[in-house]
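PROTEIN ENTRY
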Amino acid sequence: MRVTVNGEARELPDGTTVADAVAAVTPAASGVAAALNDEVVRRAAWAATPLADADRLEVLTAVQGG
């Protein structure tokens, strides 16, 4: 299936979840948020939220600095 992750088109296997896609984008264990088709997905739901063809996923990581 073809999914847009952070503005970049990616081919992902069927059954890929938000958790799988986030892990592919960042190794960060905390400070990460995900929005699927403009709706925030709670971290507790990532593993149970499958992606579908043409979905848009934004993965955001918090950074420190000034």
In short: DSSP finds one helix and five strands in the chain. The chain has one domain: 2-61.
